[in-house]
Amino acid sequence: MPKSDPAKIKKVSFSLPFGIGSVEWEADPTERRAAWSLYVELVTRIAVQSLEIDNGLLREALTSLYNLFPVTRQVLKEGGPDVGASHDSVGGIAIAVLNNGLRPFLSKWHPLLQTWEAQRPPHQSPKEHERNWSEEPKLRDELESLRKDLEQYANALAVIAGVKEEKPNKAD
């Protein structure tokens, strides 16, 4: 026998990054399940984890961020129209995060990094080559800024999914 959805429907309200603004609505079970799936994808990737200077490759971070597109599409397709596409729905928020947050970042940095990677001498490691790139510190700074915005999004998803309590706004 399948388990029933133990999460209670409740009104949620929070501010979101990427020009999405504040939203408030009552999440239904379909939206909560979609929010949980998206939350798990975000918090298990570099998306909301700091990429320390001596750890990881920028290419791996960009690839992980890029892979949020097919994952998000799949979650939204599986959730169906009940996840919504309006401003104040899980689907609408997820689409806005992709189009207003991730897409501009990746559209800027992916081709720049790709051009630099193509210039790597055969004797040099990818990590060493990345460190020699003049744009590397700027990409890391922008990646950290994006991470903070995605963390705000992940926290909102956790509230919608019912796994985290809503925090009052600092202005309250």
* Distance separating the two termini: 44 Å
Please count the beta strands (DSSP E, at least 2 residues each).
2
| Large-scale geometry | elongated
Output the number of helix runs.
6
Low-confidence stretches: 1-9, 168-172
Order of helices and strands: EEHHHHHH
Helical amount: 55-70%
Helix-strand makeup class:
mainly alpha
Strand content: 5-15%
Topology:
Elements: E1 11-16, E2 21-26, H1 29-43, H2 58-66, H3 68-79, H4 90-117, H5 126-131, H6 136-161
Antiparallel strand pairs: 1-2
Helix pairs in contact: 1-3, 1-6, 2-4, 3-4, 4-6
Task: Describe the structure in brief.
With 172 residues, this protein is mainly α. It is 56% helix and 7% strand. It is built from 6 helices and 2 strands.
Describe the model.
- This protein has 172 residues and is mostly helical.
- Helix content is 56%, strand content 7%.
- The protein has helices at residues 29-43, 58-66, 68-79, 90-117, 126-131, 136-161; strands spanning 11-16, 21-26.
- Strands 1-2 form a two-stranded antiparallel ribbon.
- Residues 1-9 and 168-172 have low confidence and may be disordered.
Give the tags:
single chain, 172 residues, mainly alpha, two-stranded antiparallel ribbon, 7% strand, disordered N terminus, disordered C terminus
